[in-house]
Amino acid sequence: MPVTNGEDSDACPDPRSQPLDVLARWRAAHAPNRSAARRRVLVTGGAGFIGSHLVDRLMQLGHEVIVVDSLFTGRKEYLAPWLGNLRFEFIRHDVTEPIVLEVDQIYHLACPASPVHYKYNAIKTIKTNVIGTLNMLGLAKRIGARLLLASTSEVYGDPLQHPQTEDYWGNVNPIGVRSCYDEGKRVAETLCFDYHRQHHVDIRIARIFNTYGPRMIENDGRVVSNFVAQALRGEHLTVYGDGQQTRSFCYVNDLVDGLVRLMNTDDITGPINLGNPTEFSMLQLAHCVREKIPQCAGIRFLPPTPDDPSKRQPDIACARQLLGWEPQVPLSQGLDWMVEEFRARGIGDKQSGADGAC
Ligand SMILES: O=c1ccn([C@@H]2O[C@H](COP(=O)(O)OP(=O)(O)O[C@H]3OC[C@@H](O)[C@H](O)[C@H]3O)[C@@H](O)[C@H]2O)c(=O)[nH]1
Fold it and tell me: Cα of 114 to ligand 1 centre, how many Å?
């Protein structure tokens, strides 16, 4: 980790004359048992869908990984391959409570991300985004760690600009049912920049667009997992509204690649959009899933959900230019892998017939 302000000698800066951030960064850069090849990395929300894939990548790269997760939506079994590994630790902890750890990097992902889950306890969701992020930024400041915030495309709300570039300020309802998440993440971004300006905390902000892949919880309510699980069970695909709303779906391994690149790129704060720019309507997605899973019963239209964004597509010019990153996996391929994993989990083995289909 680079030490700035002329403090790159091995000698410890004089604690009486140096600001705290200089001392913290000196300590981080000179910590024993650490190197660029073997960093100590904290992943909050590391037992979740994206978090657990990120943990796999960090462990494969040879880092020491600490996962902090409340297991509200995360699943410990996603971490099973690493339990018992000497480079891995799991701590069941809610980030709304402070925690003290010594690490070089913090990937701060902790927060329910499915609209169904984040609306379930809206006050808890906003606390997680605000107090949880404050706690993690305080920790980063204290120990001189770099912090990457998993922000979201939801900061753009129901966008009036399409596709969305990072300089677009968004169109967000501050008092709606989704506000706990989208306003919560907007405040989390604000906090990151305030800690950066005021305390020189080294921050990275990733605006993550819709992501899918193996290990999505089959009933987490998001569209790709819903459609695949419904199709495998021989049920109808539930399309909310007229299905003309659009999203752009990124395969989880591509996203993890973007997160790791962003974390390890110097002299950049973001925000940076990370997502697949290929846009689909929900009806197109439904047809794609039906083609792959013929036992699917058909489509059932349900009322739209409040404040549902009508369109969403990332402009990823910044990620291409600054990180040399762009998604590699087309939706059709990613869906095949996801269907395979859902089948391996036994989803659809016992056809429910609950909605009268099949
Ligand atoms: O069964 C379903 C589920 C969802 N949908 C629709 O599919 C679209 C996508 O819905 P999802 O719940 O998958 O995800 P959303 O885009 O609403 O929110 C997501 O945005 C990006 C991330 O930050 C989060 O994963 C999540 O908040 C919405 O228009 C929704 O109404 C259906 O038509 N049927």
Answer: 7
